[in-house]
Amino acid sequence: MLIKTSGDHNVILLGATGSGKTYLACALGMAAARRFYVVKYIWLPDLLVEFQIARGSGTVCKLMAQYRKYALLIMHGGYSLKETEARVLLEIVESRYKRNSTIFCSQFDIPGWPEKLSDLLLANAICDRIVYDAYTIVIGGKEPMRKRQGLQDI
Q1: Residue 24 gets which letter from DSSP?
Q2: Which of 31, 42, 89, 95 is the most buried (most CB within 10 A)?
Q3: Residue 12: alpha-carbon gap to chain centroid
Q4: Which DSSP category does 97 fall into?
Q5: Do 2 and 32 contact (CB within 8 A), yes or no?
Q6: What angle do CA 21, 110, 3 make, to 5 degrees?
Q7: Is 118 exposed, middle or buried (0-12, 13-18, 19+ CB in 10 A)?
């Protein structure tokens, strides 16, 4: 895994839009893949749709087992979740807790996460499993990475 000590750890990448969170997460994912770890990158809304479809087709257990097996799961996207969506997120983080690493990319600082989740009890459970033993990296900068790396006006 990326970081291995007494258990698998999470990485939390925080920063504004365009700060380079996705770039850094994908670079870490590529480093893990080069060491033959199975890596999955997914945007959180797409993950939630996958689970909604799986619930409808009766294959949610199979999908959950698949997400549990990824050595590194990179989840990107932070927005308010409905209670059913927060429950899916809890199921995923619980199934991976202390087994495999997850990288979370968010525009929102950790103290603001509970208000993005519909239920305080669910929010506390989710945050406890994500934040505990996580390495948090805050990416700063005054300008978005895309603007800094793009072509200058002529």
Answers
A1: H
A2: 89
A3: 8
A4: T
A5: yes
A6: 55
A7: middle
